[in-house]
Design brief:
47% of the residues lie in helices and 3% in strands. It is mostly helical. It has one domain. Strands 1-2 form a two-stranded parallel ribbon. Helix 1 runs antiparallel to helix 2 and helix 1 packs antiparallel against helix 6. The longest helix is centred in the first third of the chain and has 15 residues.
Length: 146
């Protein structure tokens, strides 16, 4: 049985589920924890490169590919809310400005939304702060349950 969530009175609706945002937050943190590539051409055997490549930021990074795919597979309203939520968390407005933030995100929406969102240096922090302003949190969300 799924418990229904009650949000603070007067909170505007979000088109994207909190769980989806939290999944993106968790994955973005995994990706952000990576370092620049120090070994330009790692060995073909993971033992040869002492597994450093797992911790390095590479264009073919599976976490980046997964994040890109997840964001691209969101419907348009969810992508718009994701961008607006990041802007809200970045301090571009307050919850009272949500309709305007969302309208601006809708105007800016295009097929490169995933690239834009993933280019935000503090994406996970922005999304969490945006959720907090809605009275929502990723606390207690487990990746395995998603």
């Amino acid at each position: 049985m799924v418990k229904s969530q009650s949000w603070p009175k007067g909170t505007p609706p979000l088109e994207i589920a909190t769980e989806k945002v939290c999944y993106i937050v968790i994955k973005a943190r995994e990706f952000d924890a990576k370092d620049i590539a120090t070994i330009p051409d790692p060995g073909s055997n993971a033992a040869d490169d002492m597994m450093y490549s797992v911790l390095e930021d590479r264009s073919d990074d599976p976490v980046l590919e997964e994040l890109t795919s997840v964001i691209q597979n969101l419907d348009e309203d969810e992508q718009i809310d994701l961008v607006a939520l990041a802007w809200l968390g970045r301090g571009d407005g307050t919850l009272a400005d949500w309709a305007e933030l969302r309208r601006s995100a809708a105007e800016a929406h295009n097929e490169r939304t995933a690239d834009y969102v993933l280019g935000l240096a503090l994406l996970s922090d922005y999304l969490e702060e945006g959720l907090n302003q809605f009275g929502r949190s990723c606390e207690g969300v487990e990746l395995g349950r998603m």
